[in-house]
């Protein structure tokens, strides 16, 4: 039953609003959001560690009151006390571990929720600000380090209390030994503290390089087919090999710093234990303490290794968590390029879609082609029309920024879009009708692809099993199957041959009859079949009309779409 209660307590809906002003504040916010389970784990950690700390005292009393005094009843009594302490330690240890695991899972899962929510909120802004490898590193490695920080709190709390308790017992029995412990522990922490900074810096550098290498690997896999085609596979493999060596060297540097820290965690407590044992033996020889107390002091000396190493482990894990939290808040600090979201959901037929910056006017129900002398201008127009970039755009006379359902009304399809893994028919149209999907596939001239693999064929990540031209046609089919109110296509036929492009151009207008469509392209085949062509030069509309008329009247347009070739 306790496990079921723990599972129910995991965050399942709203992870909350994090404090991401600094890594420490973020970790503190996480601790506060699950304060009850962390406090429970800390209390159980204290009981677990104290029950171990009291065992040497029970053994010492059993020796003095039972063995030395030859009192069987006292020996049995203290043996029972020792057994009771063992039972308490076992029960509290099991329960503490359950809470520690829960705290780890809750912190890691909450961070994953925040990262996913922020990634969804950022949309197209995210890949412009962070590489794919960095996002993967945050979602895999960094969340684990943050979970470790919440996990260590229970054992770390118990370790601190146990050291204080042992020091108190030693002070009561022998003030010099108690003072050695009280002074020795802060000295150990002070000596080990300077080792944390280089460790944290090297860990940060290693994490950055791992993120860069992940990005390189992602790009390499995504473009493997192209690299093989142009003979660049060996070149990029060499670059990847060189970068992986940099990551390896950075990992070695981290290991060196960590080994120094780990060595200090073992050596310094060992010196303290040796000092306590030596002093205890001298006091026993002088008769200052009893044989039982000597055995107890030795037991304390051995026991202190555990809490002191736990404190060192806590310092290491909190350092890693601080670095990881820094990467998380870096992602959380990013603001989307589009911040304002409207609330209007106007009814009525579609109206003109107007981009004020360029002067473009898209009439409802028409196929409008946008040809730009600079492809970046066409992309900028598409971004503003789809509200992926700020701009003064109106739709039906209303500012597009006031619309709450822009993504439902306007779909922008670019060649950077990816196919989703899963059955082909679900990748192209998760909730669409079979008839609509077949019509969309036909309009995109992708029937041969479907016939070759089948509707139920499994599409791997990003559709890597398809060629560039096949991917482009499938992406076009997906966009057409969505049947949006306004469809904006950016160079939808740039990767296909001329014959395929001609068929797509012939079918596109029929597939979008009565719907508003914008095609950003310089393809003469697509331009010739558009209802209206707009030529953009220097970011502004400088000419518009039909394709053949613009070829005769606008030399800049002719030079852009024919690339200097003679028009027949």
From TrEMBL:
Keyword Transmembrane in record: yes
Highest taxon, organism lineage: Bacteria
Limits of the ABC transporter domain: 329-563
TM helices/strands, residue ranges: 38-63, 75-94, 152-171, 177-196
Topology term for the membrane: Multi-pass membrane protein
Compartment(s) of residence: Cell membrane
Keywords, alphabetical: ATP-binding, Membrane, Nucleotide-binding, Transmembrane, Transmembrane helix
InterPro entries given in the database record: ABC1_TM_dom, ABC1_TM_sf, ABC_transporter-like_ATP-bd, ABC_transporter-like_CS, P-loop_NTPase, Type_1_exporter
Pfam families associated with the record: ABC_membrane, ABC_tran
Any one GO MF annotation of this record: ATP binding
Domain ABC transmembrane type-1: 39-320
Protein name: ABC transporter ATP-binding protein
Lineage, broadest ranks: Bacteria, Bacillati, Actinomycetota, Actinomycetes, Streptosporangiales
């Amino acid at each position: 039953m306790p496990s079921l209660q723990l599972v129910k307590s995991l965050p399942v809906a709203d992870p909350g609003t994090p404090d991401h002003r600094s890594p420490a504040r973020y970790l503190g916010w996480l601790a506060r959001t699950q304060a009850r389970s962390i406090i429970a784990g800390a209390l159980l950690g204290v009981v677990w560690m104290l029950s171990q700390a009291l065992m040497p005292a029970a053994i010492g009393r059993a020796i003095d009151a039972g063995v030395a005094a030859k009192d069987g009843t006292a020996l049995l009594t203290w043996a029972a006390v020792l057994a009771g302490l063992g039972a308490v330690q076992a029960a509290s240890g099991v329960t503490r571990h359950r809470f520690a695991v829960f705290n780890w899972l809750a912190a890691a899962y909450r961070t994953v929720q925040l990262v996913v929510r922020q990634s969804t909120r950022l949309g197209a802004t995210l890949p412009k600000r962070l590489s794919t490898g960095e996002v993967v590193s945050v979602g895999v490695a960094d969340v684990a380090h943050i979970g470790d920080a919440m996990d260590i709190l229970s054992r770390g709390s118990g370790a601190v209390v146990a050291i204080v308790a042992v020091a108190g017992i030693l002070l009561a029995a022998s003030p010099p030994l108690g003072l050695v412990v009280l002074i020795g522990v802060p000295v150990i922490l002070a000596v080990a503290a300077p080792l944390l900074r280089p460790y944290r810096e090297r860990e940060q550098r290693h994490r950055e390089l791992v993120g860069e290498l992940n990005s390189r690997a992602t790009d390499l896999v995504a473009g493997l087919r192209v690299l093989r085609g142009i003979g660049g596979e060996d070149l990029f493999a060499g670059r990847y090999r060189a970068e992986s060596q940099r990551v390896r060297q950075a990992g070695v540097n981290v290991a060196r710093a960590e080994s120094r820290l780990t060595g200090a965690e073992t050596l310094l407590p060992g010196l303290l234990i040796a000092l306590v044992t030596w002093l205890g033996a001298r006091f026993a020889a002088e008769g200052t303490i009893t044989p039982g107390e000597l055995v107890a002091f030795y037991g304390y000396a051995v026991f202190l290794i555990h809490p002191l190493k736990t404190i060192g482990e806590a310092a290491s894990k909190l350092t890693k968590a601080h670095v990881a939290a820094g990467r998380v808040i870096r992602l959380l600090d990013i603001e989307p390029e589009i911040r304002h979201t409207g609330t209007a959901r106007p009814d009525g037929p579609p109206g003109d879609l107007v981009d004020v910056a360029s002067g473009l006017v898209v009439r409802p129900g028409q196929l409008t082609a946008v040809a730009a002398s600079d492809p970046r201008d066409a992309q900028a127009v598409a971004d503003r029309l789809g509200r992926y970039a700020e701009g003064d755009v109106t739709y039906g006379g209303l500012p597009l920024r006031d619309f709450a359902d822009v993504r439902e009304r306007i779909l922008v399809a670019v060649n950077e879009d990816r196919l989703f893994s899963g059955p082909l028919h679900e990748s192209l149209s998760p909730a669409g009708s079979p008839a609509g999907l077949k019509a969309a596939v036909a309009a995109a001239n992708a029937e041969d692809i479907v016939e070759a693999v089948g509707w139920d064929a499994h599409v791997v990540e990003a559709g890597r099993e398809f060629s560039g031209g096949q991917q482009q046609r499938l992406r076009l089919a997906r966009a057409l199957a969505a049947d949006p109110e306004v469809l904006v296509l950016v160079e939808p036929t740039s990767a296909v041959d001329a014959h395929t492009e001609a068929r797509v151009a012939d079918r596109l207008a029929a597939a979008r009859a009565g719907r508003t469509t914008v095609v950003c392209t310089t393809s003469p085949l697509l331009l010739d079949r558009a209802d209206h062509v707009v030529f953009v030069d220097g970011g502004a509309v400088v000419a518009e009309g039909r394709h053949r008329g613009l070829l005769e009247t606008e030399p800049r347009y002719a030079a852009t779409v024919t690339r200097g070739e003679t028009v027949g």
